[in-house]
UniProtKB/TrEMBL annotation, chain A:
This is Ubiquitin-fold modifier-conjugating enzyme 1. It comes from Coilia grayii. E2-like enzyme which specifically catalyzes the second step in ufmylation. Accepts the ubiquitin-like modifier UFM1 from the E1 enzyme UBA5 and forms an intermediate with UFM1 via a thioester linkage. Ufmylation is involved in various processes, such as ribosome recycling, response to DNA damage, interferon response or reticulophagy (also called ER-phagy). The keyword Protein transport does not apply. Coiled coil: none annotated. GO terms for molecular function: UFM1 conjugating enzyme activity. The active site is at C116 (glycyl thioester intermediate).
Automatic annotation (TrEMBL), chain B:
This is Ubiquitin-like modifier-activating enzyme 5. Pfam families: ThiF. InterPro entries: D-isomer_DH_CS1 (IPR029752), ThiF/MoeB/HesA (IPR045886), ThiF_NAD_FAD-bd (IPR000594), Ubiquitin-activating_enz (IPR035985). GO terms for molecular function: ATP binding; metal ion binding. The keyword Transport does not apply.
Amino acid sequence: MADEATRKAVSEIPLLKTNSGPRDKELWVQRLREEYLALIKYVENNKAADNDWFRLESNKEGTRWFGKCWYIHDLLKYEFEVEFDIPVTYPATAPEVAIPELDGKTAKMYRGGRICLTDHFKPLWARNVPKFGLAHLMALGLGPWLAVEIPDLISKGLIEHKDQQGS
Amino acid sequence: MSTVEELKLRVRELENELIKCKQKSCNTAYQASSRPKIAQMSSEVVDSNPYSRLMALKRMGIVEDYEKIRTYAVAVVGVGGVGSVTAEMLTRCGIGKLLLFDYDKVELANMNRLFFQPHQAGLSKVEAAENTLRNINPDVTFEVHNYNITTVDNFTHFMDRISNGGLQQGKPVDLVLSCVDNFEARMAINTACNELGQIWMESGVSENAMSGHIQLISPGETACFACAPPLVVAANIDEKTLKKDGVCAASLPTTMGVVAGMLVQNVLKFLLGFGTVSHYLGYNAMQDFFPTMSMKPNPQCSDAHCRGQQQEYQKKEALRPREEVAETEEEVLHEDNEWGIELVSEVTEEELQSASGPMPALPEGITFSYALPSESGDSASAAPTVGEEDLSLEELMAQMKKI
Ligand SMILES: [Zn+2]
């Protein structure tokens, strides 16, 4: 499914308990608390491992998420805005993470800049409902995608480091 | 003072306006030649009767009452490669009402598919489709919605239109057709139809464009989309030779046309009551193989409304006098069983071991896209569960912002 580093990172993300989606009232608040707890722990773990790579926040209903992710390549930091909606069927189905600014630059994306996850992601997610949350989505979905696609996009000259733009 | 973002948005709005104007002037040219509405379908064979060849089905005794098609309302969710062709077929067949749902715009990258034309690029798919379809058959009533059904607000509206968007306002639609290209949207349709007890048909084309399927889902009576992992028609392509590194998905107008044809044929049989309505019909394009099957609902389905519909259905069945027809449905097994599935490549040993959940037996040529663990199984990790922190959601949100 994934490399050793990803496996280790995932094994250190707390699992979630509440099987509740955004159409539920009270239980969804409980699920959101768990989402935030897991995300905070994952970001703290990343920082401790000197591998801090994203930030996320949501609207107050927790239905729309947005933030930044970044990738270091040749000592340069490439930063992108990420966003996604929580589908009504969450957590049975994972949200589709989008990086709109990369839309049209890679074939590994669906319309609207939604990243194309590996064949392994969906089965893995389905087997771990409702234990996997957004932190797992970042670790198993967006992280590996960036690691493959960003160096490729840089080598093809499709993305430039912000400092080099316009020079 | 406007920001650059606002100005960009304004430019985009104006561009869309321009496209619409262009299309309107095109349409006026068409409309001059388009016919007025027809009050009653006639079987008279004359050049000017668009329904004569359809009404011939009645004369030949294949369909008892073809005109009944005008009394039905069908919702098509997803107006892409399969959905647009589906909508066109139903329009040409003289369906009473079509409700179209899609949030996408027509793009030049869609031109390897049927239906949409280059001059429609930039328009919303539902709007472009309505324009074209209205010209083809002005007798059809259209209702279009340009939004993503999987978000909370839109989903509520979607449910409302399924329950009240029938030919007579306030009545439910007769059938929902899923022509979407992703799992989230299928699950959203499944959720809505289980809650409403709405019969629907699923359709799909594989990402390598070499297989497809259609499936009738009658809540409580046949397996719903959440009863088991998604079914796939084996395309008999060696996974190792299939290079997916560079792209997400391929698409062919042929495969999508075949699947749309299978779907609408099943719709016509279902609505007009002729032939055998398929519960599941697959298409393997490499071998030209069409597997069929039927699957009972899973009493342990994760969707509570599916389980509720199953109880309702069984109550109704118990009241019905027994018929002497031997059903050949595949029995869903519910104890753990060893079963040879074709798992996605590169699964680990632990993943394989956990893949022994309850699974129905499937006929040759159809497999599950993945396996689920048995109830107690844990394939994930030995990670601890989130703690019982006393912090409120607001406090946690603030904490997340600070790090
Ligand atoms: Zn079910």
